[in-house]
Amino acid sequence: MYIVFEGIDGAGKSTQIQLLKEWLEDNGLEVETMVEPTDSEVGKLIRKILQRPDATTDSVQKTLGLLFAADRMLIMDKLSDDKKVIISDRSFISSLAYQEPADWISVLNKYAKKPDLLLLLDLDVKTSVSRTSGEDTFENEEFLTNVKSNYLDLVKDFNHEIIDANNGINKVSSDIKKAVASHVGLCRDCIL
Ligand SMILES: Nc1ncnc2c1ncn2[C@@H]1O[C@H](COP(=O)(O)OP(=O)(O)OP(=O)(O)O)[C@@H](O)[C@H]1O
Ligand SMILES: Cc1cn([C@H]2C[C@H](O)[C@@H](COP(=O)(O)O)O2)c(=O)[nH]c1=O
């Protein structure tokens, strides 16, 4: 089972992945978490580029599209372990939302694994910016407004749930557990 968390910066992905992992493990399931970009040499280069003032320009965005695709290919084999629940903080769907043009990004990620379940944490853009450090050039209202719009368009192509990430942590966690329960054989109605 490959579950992917997506959403704009500061949406609560890391927070919610940890809560979901604990809940699934408490219910006897084996869980492994992944994150993109990874901590590989490619991932480290990506994080440097994300802080460049020209990160949102067409040429740098095309470079990032290539680097993100290469970075995720390094972990592709790990995503297909059917004996456990793989929960990833981001995926190639982030590339479709953050980088453009989508047709080229789709070609670059032709061999990327598609999630069994995509959870989009949908957050107000102003709240997103208020929660982030501003170190990454992407972390601005204009850019993230477009990313949010892209996400809401492209999730329709996947088995997905849209989670209102503007709620408190516990409410968001409860909504996520209810969305996941039936996919992993757990009782949805048992969740408060
Ligand atoms: N539902 C929530 N309500 C209020 N604050 C939250 C909520 N969820 C997360 N936060 C806070 O928002 C910040 C970002 O959370 P988190 O790191 O989980 O988001 P993220 O989506 O992983 O961010 P990024 O994509 O930038 O890595 C943290 O300070 C976290 O404590
Ligand atoms: C996988 C991926 C990520 N990004 C962007 C999204 C964020 O602004 C940064 C770093 O991610 P984090 O969750 O804040 O650690 O990278 C992207 O533009 N394209 C991608 O494919």
TrEMBL record:
Top-level division of the source organism's lineage: Archaea
Catalytically driven reaction(s): dTMP + ATP = dTDP + ADP
UniProt GO cellular component terms: cytoplasm
InterPro entries membership: P-loop_NTPase, Thymidylate_kin-like_dom, Thymidylate_kin_CS, Thymidylate_kinase
Alphabetized GO MF terms: ATP binding; dTMP kinase activity
Keyword Transferase appears in the UniProt entry: yes
A biological-process GO annotation: dUDP biosynthetic process
TM segment ranges: none
Keywords tagged on the record: ATP-binding, Kinase, Nucleotide biosynthesis, Nucleotide-binding, Transferase
Domain annotation Thymidylate kinase-like: ranges: 5-176
Annotated residues for binding of ATP: 7-14
Entry EC no(s): 2.7.4.9
Entries under PANTHER family matching the protein: THYMIDYLATE KINASE, UMP-CMP KINASE 2, MITOCHONDRIAL
Family to which the UniProt record says this protein belongs: Belongs to the thymidylate kinase family.
Name of the protein in its database record: Probable thymidylate kinase
Organism: Methanobrevibacter millerae
